[in-house]
């Protein structure tokens, strides 16, 4: 055996030369099998069936497998012990993936699950021909694709003699055709009299590889000639037979001899009995019973809900060979698809064909005319094709895949409650992959990481910060208000959180550059030093890989974890005592915690703007609870809580999609695109025709589609984290006013409303006044020279940090490519000179002074400096990550797609989300603000100011009513 116990190089060879290369092939083939199921459903009607063996004439739970007393010593391994007797499930089936009459030419199959102990079982799968038609997984899937949907003799003949040779070549097709004809030419009168052979070999402990077979026990009576016009004659024959006596099969094994005569990798070669005799080792007995009794029918239904997989076993009995290794991924995928846990969204043929023609045209056009300078309809269509390219090329899975596959227990049933409620930690959003996107799942990538330790300090991050980021004078974004700045921090705290080592345990050190004359203390009251020091991120160590894989300590899903917490303990602690449905509030505010920072799901980097939003949405949760109780009096407290969480999380996602994003990317094209994401396109024949021709899936809005992860399992990415480093939005100074008469209450700095001081200030100011103050004030523009001074020297977790330096260092050390590579990787042309990046003369001069060439520019700096499209609050390069990930966060989440429905949310809940928005949240909890909200813009645009008399601390018209784009002083750029 190999040292790992997971593969044995004496017997196995991997497709592509390595387990990892083969894993990628197997996953692709698994996706192909799901498409086969879709085509078979169209041909056979009904729901999605098993990819193979769709129809089962028999399913019983009360079978027994007993090993013989004279079991050969060499085969006494694991559960295989003389006289050992185990319960078993048995499913006998027709092999086709289409449910068809029993008289159709077909193979037959047997699936047996032997239950050894709690959590230990063995699945044995076999088919009624001694050899596979396919030698490996590629051939197996090619055959399945060729035959998919084929019904009737002509369709099957066309698939077998035309489509199959085109897929695998004439020679391979001829061999497969011979095997299939030989396997299906016999008439089958009874499944009890058939012999079933394993597809490929399995390990049998130290005895090495074996193939197994189930053959009728001696003395099994033959079957009478059936009425082949009866589509269910095989079931009726078994019912008659089991009504009179037991049905038994002998389990036999054939032992490996050598690679030529008994190959492990080539499943199309028969292990002949003359070379490897079949040795009986156990007997499988199906006891006499009434198959059509209610209890037996219920058992058969339960078995139909199961998924069988040869990898549901133990390591001693793991499957061997390429086909078997591929079956783990393939059977898991097709089983999950059948059970509604995994989905296939097929692209219409017209979309595929037209896309291949038109997509490259837009690619060429964009070299001359950027998408945002095209006419509206063309720019929208251009975005459709750009997103297609990004989905295909810029979703990189970083999770460590299982290669080679490992044996595992048969999966436990999914907890029923998690079908209709979000888990506390993000597990079970994808029911087929419970850990996908959960707390602890790794950040993915949109670009191949570029880990270069030799450039971590080049140029010095402190120099970059002081020359290119430091706020010398405040540049406002006049089309937005400060609520927009608070909102994105509120959202980022739900999405991403890199865990850090405790202060002092493991640090990053950044030497101060020569000439840096400030005194720097790394801890409050500590000595001045010539180095900045801050806690390192905790990475996921993977042998043979650079240290650039990090786990998210928040869930990746849009689940409101910043309000509710990322684990059950926190979530329950935040609820009212006694397990109430509501969140705890004190006089309408969040309950106080240590150091004055309130108790909520995520309260790091706390300030008054976060407090306002957390308070609003905690109140919103409680309002949803009240409405649910009134509408559904019998609903339990637990159900009320989880339903309210679904509603509030979806409402937050909707607000971000159709209100915040169009506010910061203030163009008609983006407004239409984002509203299309949620609600479908405008009722314009031109828009709908364009989508029908090129991307039909966008005709309904994402919440009315099926989950789709596209090219990689769902996760947020390190590149996504980078483009959301939007700290320039935070002002350093704030004027707090009361909303009735506009009177100024006081002027405060950011540090006066940060941490525990922020909560004290909002209680003193009042929620409505705080919201009004933020609603009329502008955030900073996302541009160089505009990083908040307050964030360049502030205390967090017992250390003093310069967040601008931290942003630069984190991005470099996580392997996010530098700006020019980042830009090129997102399908924009590389810049060749600093002048191509920015038109600002001050920024241009400093870029040339700090960087030796354009390829050295930091990603964050380049994204800030880039000349954005008109109306955009950030760069076109950052926008490309956004258009990819914005729709992905909706499209991957079943609670925002297939399970966004009244049966899960309740009719009231769906109505609450569909009719709700940021204005409705504000007015529900602060109705006195109604006259002050923008009339024709979102709540993230500047609010109406209350005029005050000159000399009384008031202002005249500061902020206006909307502001539809950037101003000449930088605006929202």
Automatic annotation (TrEMBL):
Annotated region Disordered: the residues are 944-973
Question: Which Pfam families would you find in this protein's record?
Answer: An_peroxidase
Cofactor(s) required for function per UniProt: Ca(2+)
Composition-biased stretches, type Gly residues, lie in 951-963
Q: Name one GO molecular function term.
A: oxidoreductase activity, acting on single donors with incorporation of molecular oxygen, incorporation of two atoms of oxygen
| GO BP term, example | response to oxidative stress
Keywords for this entry?
Dioxygenase, Fatty acid biosynthesis, Fatty acid metabolism, Heme, Iron, Lipid biosynthesis, Lipid metabolism, Metal-binding, Oxidoreductase, Oxylipin biosynthesis, Peroxidase, Plant defense
Which regions are flagged for Low complexity bias? 964-973
User: What name has this protein been given in UniProt?
Assistant: Peroxidase
What lineage is this protein's organism placed in?
Bacteria, Bacillati, Actinomycetota, Actinomycetes, Kitasatosporales
């Amino acid at each position: 055996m190999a040292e790992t116990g997971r593969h044995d190089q004496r017997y196995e060879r991997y497709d592509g030369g390595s387990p990892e290369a083969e894993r990628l092939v197997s996953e692709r083939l698994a996706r192909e099998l799901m498409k086969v199921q879709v085509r078979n459903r169209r041909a056979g009607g009904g729901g999605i069936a098993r990819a193979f063996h769709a129809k089962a004439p028999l399913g019983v739970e009360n079978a027994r497998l007993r090993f013989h007393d004279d079991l050969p010593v060499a085969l006494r391994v694991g559960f295989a012990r003389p006289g050992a007797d185990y319960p078993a499930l048995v499913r006998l089936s027709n092999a086709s993936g289409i449910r068809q009459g029993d008289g159709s030419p077909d193979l037959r199959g047997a699936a047996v699950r032997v239950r050894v102990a709690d959590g230990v079982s063995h699945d044995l799968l076999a088919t009624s021909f001694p050899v596979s038609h396919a030698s490996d997984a590629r051939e197996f899937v090619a055959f399945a694709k060729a035959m998919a949907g084929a019904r009737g003799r002509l369709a099957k003949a066309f698939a077998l003699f035309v489509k199959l040779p085109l897929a695998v070549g004439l020679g391979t097709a001829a061999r497969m055709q011979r095997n299939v004809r030989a396997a299906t030419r016999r008439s089958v009168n009874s499944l009890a009299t058939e012999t079933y052979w394993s597809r490929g070999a399995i390990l049998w402990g130290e005895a090495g590889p074996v193939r197994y077979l189930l053959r009728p026990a001696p003395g099994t009576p033959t079957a009478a000639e059936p009425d082949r016009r009866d589509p269910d004659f095989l079931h009726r024959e078994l019912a008659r037979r089991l009504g009179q006596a037991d049905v038994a099969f002998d389990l036999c094994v054939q032992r490996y001899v050598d690679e030529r005569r008994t190959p492990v990798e080539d499943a199309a070669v028969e292990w002949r009995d003359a070379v490897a005799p079949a040795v009986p080792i156990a007997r499988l007995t199906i006891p006499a019973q009434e198959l059509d009794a209610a209890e037996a029918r219920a058992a058969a239904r339960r078995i139909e809900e199961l998924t069988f997989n040869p990898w549901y076993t133990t390591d001693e009995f793991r499957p061997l060979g390429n086909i078997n290794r591929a079956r783990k991924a393939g059977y898991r995928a097709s089983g999950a698809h059948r059970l509604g846990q995994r989905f296939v969204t097929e692209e219409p043929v017209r979309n595929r064909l037209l896309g291949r023609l038109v997509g490259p045209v837009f690619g060429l056009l964009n070299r001359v005319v950027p998408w945002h300078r095209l006419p509206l309809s063309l720019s929208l269509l251009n975005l459709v094709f750009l997103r297609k390219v990004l989905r295909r090329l810029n979703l990189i899975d970083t999770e460590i895949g299982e290669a080679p596959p490992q044996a595992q227990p048969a999966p436990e049933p999914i907890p029923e409650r998690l079908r209709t409620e979000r888990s506390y930690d993000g597990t079970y959003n994808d029911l087929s992959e419970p850990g996908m996107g959960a707390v602890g799942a790794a950040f993915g990538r949109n670009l191949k990481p570029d880990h270069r330790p030799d450039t971590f300090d080049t140029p010095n991050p402190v120099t970059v910060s002081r020359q290119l980021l430091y706020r010398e004078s405040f540049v406002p974004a006049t089309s937005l208000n400060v609520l927009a700045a608070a909102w994105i921090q509120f959202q980022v705290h739900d999405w991403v959180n890199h865990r850090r080592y405790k202060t002092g345990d493991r640090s990053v050190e950044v030497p101060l550059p020569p000439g840096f004359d400030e005194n720097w203390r790394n801890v409050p009251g500590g000595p001045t030093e010539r180095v900045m020091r801050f806690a390192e991120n905790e990475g996921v160590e993977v042998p043979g890989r650079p240290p650039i894989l990090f786990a998210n300590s928040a869930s990746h899903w849009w689940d409101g974890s910043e309000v509710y917490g990322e684990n059950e303990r926190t979530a329950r602690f935040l609820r009212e005592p006694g397990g109430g449905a509501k969140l705890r509030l004190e006089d309408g505010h969040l309950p106080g915690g240590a150091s004055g920072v309130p108790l909520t799901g995520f309260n790091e980097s706390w300030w008054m703007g976060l407090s306002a939003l957390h308070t609003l949405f905690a109140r919103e949760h409680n309002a949803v609870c009240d409405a649910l109780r009134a509408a559904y009096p019998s609903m339990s407290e637990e159900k009320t809580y989880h339903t309210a969480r679904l509603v509030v999380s979806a409402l937050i996602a909707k607000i971000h999609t159709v209100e915040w994003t169009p506010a910061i990317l203030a163009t008609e094209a983006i407004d239409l695109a984002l509203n299309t994401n949620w609600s479908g396109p405008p009722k314009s024949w031109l828009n709908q025709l364009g989508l029908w021709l090129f991307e039909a899936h966008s005709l309904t809005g994402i919440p009315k589609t099926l989950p789709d992860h596209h090219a990689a399992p769902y996760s947020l990415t390190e590149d996504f984290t980078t483009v959301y480093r939007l700290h320039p939005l935070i002002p350093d100074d704030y004027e707090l006013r009361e909303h009735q008469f506009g009177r100024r209450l006081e002027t405060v700095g950011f540090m006066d409303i940060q941490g525990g001081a922020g909560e004290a200030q909002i209680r003193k100011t009042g929620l409505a006044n705080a919201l009004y103050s933020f609603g009329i004030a502008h955030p900073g523009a996302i541009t160089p020279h505009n990083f908040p001074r307050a964030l360049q020297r502030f205390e967090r977790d017992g250390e003093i940090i310069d967040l601008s330096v931290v942003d630069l260092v984190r991005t470099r050390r996580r392997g996010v490519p530098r700006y020019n590579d980042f830009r090129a990787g997102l399908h924009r042309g590389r810049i060749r000179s600093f002048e191509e990046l920015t038109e600002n003369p001050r920024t241009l001069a400093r870029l040339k002074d700090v960087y030796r060439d354009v390829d050295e520019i930091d990603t964050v700096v380049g994204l800030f400096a880039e000349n954005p499209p008109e109306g955009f609050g950030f760069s076109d390069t950052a926008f490309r990550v956004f258009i990819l990930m914005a729709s992905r966060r909706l499209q991957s989440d079943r609670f925002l797609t297939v399970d966004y429905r009244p049966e899960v949310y309740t009719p009231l809940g769906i109505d609450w989300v569909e009719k709700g928005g940021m204005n409705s949240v504000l007015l529900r909890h602060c109705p006195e603000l109604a006259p002050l909200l923008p009339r024709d813009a979102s709540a993230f645009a500047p609010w109406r100011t209350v005029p005050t008399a000159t000399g009384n601390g008031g202002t005249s018209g500061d902020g206006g009513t909307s502001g539809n784009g950037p101003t000449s002083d930088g605006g929202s750029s």
